Amino acid sequence: MWWLNFNPQFNWPFSGSVVQDIHPSLLARAGNDETELRVLREVASYGRQIGVLSDLVLGLAKRLPAGELDDDARHALAQLEEMGARIARIKQGQR
Fold first, then answer.
1. How many domains, in total, are found in the chain?
2. CB 33 within 8 A of CB 25
3. 10 lies in a domain?
4. Cα–Cα distances in Å, from 45 out to 19, 52, 85?
C-alpha cells in the first residue's frame, strides 16, 4: 500500500504558490516610482491607505438617511462592511 503515501506535487507555470512584493512600477507608469516608494516607506502602505478610505466611506454612509443609496451603492456598502469585518477578525487572530 505504498501508493497511498505517494503524493507528487506538480506546478505548471503560474500554477504554484506565488509570493512577491508588488513594486509600484509594476502597477502603473503614470507617476514617479521614487515618490511612490517614499510614500509607501514613510507614510503608509497601500493597505493602510485603503483602510483609512474605507473607514471614511463607512462613517459617511452611516450619516446618510435610510433609503438614500440606490441598490448598487447598498450592495457595495454591504461588501465593504463585510470586508471590514473579515479584516478585523483576521487582525484579532494575529494579536
1. 1
2. yes
3. no
4. 17, 11, 20
Q: Cell 487582525 appears where? A: 91
User: What cell does 28 get?
Assistant: 502603473
88 within a domain of the structure (yes/no): yes
Distance CA 73, CA 62 (A): 13
Ordered DSSP codes for 33-87: HHHHHHHHHHT--HHHHHHHHHHHHHHHHHHSPTT-S-HHHHHHHHHHHHHHHHH
Q: What is the pLDDT along the chain (95 residues), one digit of tens a residue?
A: 555 566 666 666 666 655 556 665 555 555 777 888 888 889 998 899 999 999 999 999 999 998 899 999 999 999 999 999 999 999 898 75
Domain that holds residue 55: 31-95
Is the Cβ–Cβ distance between 24 and 36 less than 8 Å? yes
The predicted model scores a pTM of 0.62
5 lies in a domain?
no
Q: 4 lies in a domain?
A: no
